Amino acid sequence: MQKLALLQFIQERSKATSKEIMEIVELFKENAIEKGGYFLQAGTVSDAYFFMETGFMRAYTFDYHGNEVTTNFYRANSLVFEPASFFTRTPSKENIQALTACSGYFIRFERLNQLFHSMPAFREFGRAMLVNGFAALKQRTLSIINETAETRYQQLLQHNGEIFQHAQLKQIASYLGITDTSLSRIRREFAKK
Amino acid sequence: MQKLALLQFIQERSKATSKEIMEIVELFKENAIEKGGYFLQAGTVSDAYFFMETGFMRAYTFDYHGNEVTTNFYRANSLVFEPASFFTRTPSKENIQALTACSGYFIRFERLNQLFHSMPAFREFGRAMLVNGFAALKQRTLSIINETAETRYQQLLQHNGEIFQHAQLKQIASYLGITDTSLSRIRREFAKK
DNA sequence: ACGTTTTCTTGTCATTTGGCAAGTGGCATT
DNA sequence: AATGCCACTTGCCAAATGACAAGAAAACGT
């Protein structure tokens, strides 16, 4: 097992020694999810901390009217988990679904927690993952408040263009906070330019 | 120094022993902020983890057009800090301002971090604070996407009514993601019922 | 290749919200 | 009481977005 991408990912984001990182990486197990399969189902506890090496996923939940709302997209070479459920050990409100076939390496809560306890340097990594997610969410919230839907669309297209290769427009629309109809119109206007 | 409220706050949220909690509480120092004063200024690093015993604060930043956007409100008996800046040691984009005279107890990053390293049980507390903030922000984001401004207003009024006693409507409006004009109209409609 | 299903686009119209400017009311200062 | 300041409200109109329905395009299974 190589797990090279995982090793590198941790190396770039923590101050743990190479030896420690090798130990850590050892504890991750390989996993694959087929296209359309679920990494996490609403109502269950998120117990896997998953480094996705290849593939693409999205997280979604339902609003009070029963509409799907996309809350996140996950690209290759990133961590997939639902912090609120994972750390509080309570059932998740979100589903995380593979939009393409996915593969990577996971570790379960219990074992990860042991690592956090035994390796102070790796703890920083865990915290950084949480804090980054926090900052990204805040950024997204502000952009929904301040920017027009068209600007949000442009920025998503520019910074996360791959999303458009894997997700349906309806899924992207709810992530942007608009309907699929509006997104379609925005795309038409945008194409003119 | 009593710090009773702080002691109780930690007790309810961590598995640390009473003895440990007493040690922890000892390290918090008293602090007060006058009405209108700043707990955190944009551009500086959030270095204080503040348990506010009395008072009311709000966090705000500016969008690209220079408009103030309220990002958070803090009530008495809660923790005040900016996670992204605090944990990454980078300058904050947000200001946190006292809307009334505030008092409470703070601890600095360095010392708090030492505590996290030396007391596993207290670490859970720190993580819980982060995770809770995360969940609250996600909830707010979803409500901006899914609910009408009027519903958001109603819910804020119902669950956080004290905000209306301390903050200006313009500040509340930007927190709700609308203009002060719209909020005013919503209030009029709402009053009719 | 075929028909079926799903996704995407478009039109029409109603609703929400914003931008701007004027007006109202409270409050403090003088 | 007059003044000025500030927060808030209101009216008017424009722009953005949603709801619904129909049609076009694409994806899918057999």
Structure description:
The structure is a homodimer of 193-residue chains. The first copy, chain A, is of the alpha+beta class and 193 residues long. The first copy, chain A, is 51% helix and 22% strand. The first copy, chain A, is built from 9 helices and 8 strands. Chain A has helices at 4-13, 18-26, 83-88, 109-118, 120-146, 149-159, 163-166, 169-176, 180-192; strands at residues 29-33, 38-40, 48-54, 57-62, 68-74, 78-80, 95-98, 102-108. In chain A, the strands form 2 sheets. A 4-stranded antiparallel sheet of chain A has the order 1-8-3-6. In chain A, a hairpin with a 5-residue loop joins strand 4 and strand 5. In chain A, helix 4 (109-118) packs across helix 5 (120-146) and helix 8 (169-176) crosses helix 9 (180-192). Chain A is elongated and about 55 Å long. The N and C termini of chain A lie far apart (48 Å). The model of chain A has no long low-confidence stretch (mean pLDDT 94). Chains A and B meet through helix 3 and helix 5 of A and helix 3 and helix 5 of B. Chain A binds a DNA duplex (30 and 30 nucleotides) through helix 9.
